Amino acid sequence: MTDDKDVLRDVWFGRIPTCFTLYQDEITEREAEPYYLLLPRVSYLTLVTDKVKKHFQKVMRQEDISEIWFEYEGTPLKWHYPIGLLFDLLASSSALPWNITVHFKSFPEKDLLHCPSKDVIEAHFMSCVKEADALKHKSQVINEMQKKDHKQLWMGLQNDRFDQFWAINRKLMEYPAEENGFRYIPFRIYQTTTERPFIQKLFRPVSTDGQLHTLGDLLKEVCPSAVAPEVPMPEVCSWLPTWLLASSAEGSHLPSLWRDWEEDGPRLSQQGAENRRNQSPGTETRLLHREKSA
Amino acid sequence: MVGNGELQRTVLMATCVKHIFKLKMELQCHIKEHLTMYRHFFLWRAKKTINKIKRQPAAKLLQSCPTLCEPIDGSPKGSPIPGILQEALDPPLDDLEVNETTTAAEVIKYEYHVLYSCSYQVPVLYFRASFLDGRPLALKDIWEGVHECYKMRLLQGPWDTITQQEHPILGQPFFVLHPCKTSEFMTPVLKNSQKINRNVNYITSWLSMVGPAVGLNLPLSYATAASQDEGNVDGQDSSIERKSLEEH
């Protein structure tokens, strides 16, 4: 795990440059300037946009303001998805900055969960962490933790404190020496082309004959239409939670998968590029591009 | 309570991606055999009148019989499911009990779904509620509407009990009763029934325990129908089943 510290840090500190613009039909007392912000991939929209809210509310009257919500090219943005996931799913092929429209009225009840306070985000985040641990450890690790540990996990995310977060999260990433990995790998696969929001199934890190599963095995089994043939996936599946899953600070609910590990050798990144070319149309499994460090 | 004969004949249908199960009340539902492998999907439509002014959540239930809607898990329409009921019309009002106070009350429509969680390996109750004009209820309305006898438990940890979540198949906002404690309270039920050599319909037992907290009161006839069909026509045996359900 210690070797992966760099990768964990890179994932944690990934940012998306975003431009927030007020929806044109909102009633304002004067012109509203767009607001620029670097959004953390691992966090949630409603957790990191207080400044955005304040900025636009300055030019509006109190009576014209109700619950804030965000939209990209007509699609309401589900705040309960990690920001990185939303971007990869909807906007990764567009030029930066990511252009998000801000609304203060006509909340889309049928599409979005309400988020009246930070408590809602905390509850959602913790329930994801708990569900992941149910898969990894039959909930033993998370249930043995004290309430203050849970709080520390949440505060680490809220305040962008890598060390504070991982001090607790590393316990959720461990497994006993005699096992070869977690009980099941917690993952979710998101695609733009399906009606169902995501694919989530039980998947063991080790096969019945003792072989460690790879990411390719997982995808082949769970999402066969999205995988190009002859994909070498040397990364073992049990490492998935450590790196990629860490990309959605929930620790283990993994948004889209695949990284371009340029430094891991030309072969891998070449294959990564080929994967993208070989995607059959209509099954765009999102590729999570490595963020260049700022 | 509404003693509608229809209830006895209601068929709970479950469909999943690979197979179609027919869960009549007389069928046993062994969770290990069935639910661990497949997802089940039930849909009830129940109309419930809440006396909004007095905020009495356990108000008279103008409940239409749980009817069956088409399964919405992606199985093809027109699947050969014998006896599937089309969405039934509401029974005429004079068949149901009517409280005088309800004339001034708002009608709230509840929709309940039972899904299976492969992470927790238990069923989970999802529901949504709206007024007849389509206005949805907010989470705090739902919390306020929880029956008094469950209020204590809710107040201990509302965020761990009922929250709004995305329906994993429909992708729309629903309220969810958290499943993390389900196996904890279901294990004694299953153990006890094994001791007295009785089969338990997991879904009926589970739903009779969690449903009432969120307005879904399962009529006793579900349980008696189940026990009758198991071939235990003996009155004594039925009363044991009834008793163990009542205790919860």
Automatic annotation (TrEMBL), chain A:
Q: Polar residues composition bias: which ranges?
A: 268-283
In this protein, which residues make up the domain named Autophagy protein ATG5 UblA? 11-104
- Give every Autophagy protein ATG5 alpha-helical bundle region domain span: 119-174
Query: Which keywords has UniProt assigned to this entry?
Result: Autophagy, Isopeptide bond, Membrane, Ubl conjugation
The Autophagy protein ATG5 UblB domain sits at 184-228
Q: Where is this region: Disordered?
A: 264-294
Provide the primary localization.
Answer: membrane
Q: Which GO terms describe its cellular component?
A: phagophore assembly site membrane
Q: Which domain of life is it from?
A: Eukaryota
Q: How does it sit in the membrane?
A: Peripheral membrane protein
InterPro entries reported in the protein's UniProt record? Atg5 (IPR007239), ATG5_HBR (IPR048940), Atg5_HR (IPR042526), ATG5_UblA (IPR048939), Atg5_UblA_dom_sf (IPR042527), ATG5_UblB (IPR048318)
Q: Where is this protein localized, as stated in its record?
A: Preautophagosomal structure membrane
A GO BP term, please? vacuole organization
Biological function = Involved in autophagic vesicle formation. May play an important role in the apoptotic process, possibly within the modified cytoskeleton. Its expression is a relatively late event in the apoptotic process, occurring downstream of caspase activity. Plays a crucial role in IFN-gamma-induced autophagic cell death by interacting with FADD.
Family the entry assigns: Belongs to the ATG5 family.
State how it assembles: Forms a conjugate with ATG12. Part of the minor complex composed of 4 sets of ATG12-ATG5 and ATG16L1 (400 kDa); this complex interacts with ATG3 leading to disruption of ATG7 interaction and promotion of ATG8-like proteins lipidation. Forms an 800-kDa complex composed of ATG12-ATG5 and ATG16L2. The ATG12-ATG5 conjugate interacts with RAB33A; this interaction is bridged by ATG16L1 and promotes ATG12-ATG5-ATG16L1 complex recruitment to phagophores. Interacts with TECPR1; the interaction is direct and does not take place when ATG16L1 is associated with the ATG5-ATG12 conjugate.
Name of the protein in question = Autophagy protein 5
Source species, please?
Bos taurus
TrEMBL record, chain B:
**Keywords from the named record:** Autophagy, Transferase, Ubl conjugation pathway
UniProt GO molecular function = ubiquitin-like protein transferase activity
One of its GO biological process terms is:
autophagy
Please provide an example of a Pfam family that matches this protein in its UniProt record. Autophagy_act_C
Query: Lipid metabolism as a keyword?
Result: no
InterPro entries (UniProt xref): Atg3/Atg10
* Annotated spans, Disordered: 228-248
**Keyword Transferase tagged:** yes
Enumerate the Gene3D superfamilies for this protein. Answer: 3.30.1460.50
| TM region(s), chain numbering | none
Composition bias, kind Basic and acidic residues: at what positions?
Answer: 239-248
Q: Which domain of life is it from?
A: Eukaryota
Q: Which segment of the chain is annotated as a signal peptide?
A: none
Q: Which residue stretches does the UniProt record annotate as biased composition, category Polar residues? A: 228-238
Question: What family is it from?
Answer: Belongs to the ATG10 family.
Could you tell me what this protein is called?
Ubiquitin-like-conjugating enzyme ATG10
Its source organism is Bos taurus
What's the name of its gene?
ATG10
